[in-house]
Request: fold
Amino acid sequence: MKRRRTALLSLTALLGALLTALPAGPAAADEVEQLKNGTFDTTTEPWWTTSNVTAGLSAGQLCGDVPGGTTNRWDAAVGQNDLTLVKGESYKFAFTASGSPAGHVVRAVVGLQVAPYDTYFEVSPELSVSGDSYAYTFTSPVDTTQGQVAFQAGGSADAWRFCMDDVSLLGGVPPEVYEPDTGPRVRVNQVAYLPSGPKNATLVTDATAKLPWQLKNAGGTTVAHGWSVPRGVDVSSGQNVHSIDFGGYRRPGKGFTLVADGETSRPFDIGTSAYEQLRVDAVKYYYTQRSGTAIRDDLRPGYGRAAGHLNSAPNQGDYNVPCQPGVCDYTLDVTGGWYDAGDHGKYVVNGGIATWELLSTYERSLLARTGHPGRLGDGTLALPESGNKVPDVLDEARWELEFLLKMQVPDGQPLAGMAHHKIHDEQWTGLPLLPSEDPQKRELHPPSTQATLNLAATAAQAARLYRPYDRAFAAKALAAARKAWSAALAHPAMYASESDGTGGGAYPDTNATDEFYWAAAELYLTTGEREFKDHVLESPVHTADIFGSLGFDWGRTAAAGRLDLATVPSRLPGRDKVRASVVKGADGYLTTLKSQAYGMPYAPTDNVYDWGSSHQILNNAVVLGTAYDLTGASKYRDGAVQSMDYILGRNALNMSYVTGYGEANSHNQHSRWYAHELDPNLPNPPRGTLAGGPNSSIQDPYAQSKLQGCVGQFCYIDDIQSWSTNETAINWNAALARMASFIADQG
Reply:
């Protein structure tokens, strides 16, 4: 199931969006220059400028004086229109450019000169810092005679001078072949192995017979050795691989490497401290995702920013958001909550599953034999609320819960008690764009049964967990959950439209059976009432095999109910069978893990990696971890722990999918404000941010230009423009937080 996107990005503002270009195709036989007068020997014609840029010839260059005080890159620009682009043809885009004073950024784009101003290629060099000469190759995704090359120079507080020369758009060049740098052929968890946990690695090699390996400490001394186990061709990567098991070595330390077949792995530790930090960082991620509040730089150095969407210009704000035309005749205050992913939208179904998993991370700490409630307690996350005697993880989750409650249709209105599916911009915005600078109109989208049941489930769960700290909030949450449940029963088939994907993800789902089961389970566990018990027991989901290869997610929520019914104490009849079903699901994932040369509990049908595969692997590991909590059997603990190896570097690309963790890690995730790749003044994502990971469908044009024909694990690229493989999302990070906390507890 597609996670969220159903439409390509476009800007309504001049010179538009961040969709770069792409599906590869054959190059033309002859190289043909598409631009006129790119050398500026005697004139600037036919180049144009926006009215606020004064441009002319200077020493054989085109130079323009750019005013200060503009907001967006496209507010001041130089360009040439009426270019012909041929779909599938490759082009070399080259230019020299400089800026005075140094350090200014220009956004160079090849795109469409008319609405919707699609962008086929873009780059944003920092002039006179990153060099003066630039050259790039891309493939056009369209046939058009209305192409445009533009140099966008706005967005600076101060005036500056921009010069360019030797501008070329050469068609018919050979397309570039993308070959990812996968580093050494010995693939390890680049962060840490637990001293008493499993320690496995994967060796990529043409050898068919076993090979010797050595484990070396930071000083280069061999501390363990053995032989690899040939595994043949791994279907998930297409590589011939061997497995290496060095679990017999248990001494803690830093800077270990594994040597085999003449290759030395990236370094790693043996110890628990990295997981204690990852537990915290994965949850600290949510503070910088907050909407409706300024992010304090003293709490997150380098990530401070103004509040977004509080009705301060240019924001149109979230205080009084109207519905889409024809949906309702009221407005709602829907301030707060978390921005869902790399855009400025807020979605109840994704917010619901993310909130549940954070709350469940805390609830597990209260119930599991290895749980430690204080590890995410008051003062652990450096939040504005720290010091209020409430666990910080509950403070963070409450920021989203308060928003979810605001999305409920008010009393007296048609569909009272239902929850609006989402709220986001009327049109897609481009990158980069800070939340406080978003000028778009905001809209409420129609209520849906699934959103309503997400509200019922999470609010019911919240009612039992917040009761010791804020009885009034707990009561408010439970009342909202009951109201949502009743509304969903009255409207059991109001589904979000798959076509409602302009300005934000659609999150379509045409089966609410799993959400009804999940909501009933949470309401029963909190109240013990017969109505909810009966719904749980009568649901076809209750006895179904729900632990499939893709793992649970916003569109597959039955496991959320099943896991909580298995672990949260109750008097549910047949609870032993519920617990046994979780263990059976874990057995399946353990079998899958053992069959995979890279050691993950994930083997999707036909090797088609799904959108957000990273978090699906982690959620399958959650089932393994829950089986350990239920049984105490070490095989489930080891399976859950080993699953993190894939996320942290033991994979075909030899990279960690968690920002800041591992020598090679994802750090260019698709985001409008963690956009350092496009704007040097903005940061990369914070430490502990999970990338979506390989996605066989490669829906975005940038991935399509690089990854055509990719096999499984290779369907990923760490670039901000690849929203289908490299976005960040609140539900994905919740899975990381849950598993990081579990592994840290095993220390």
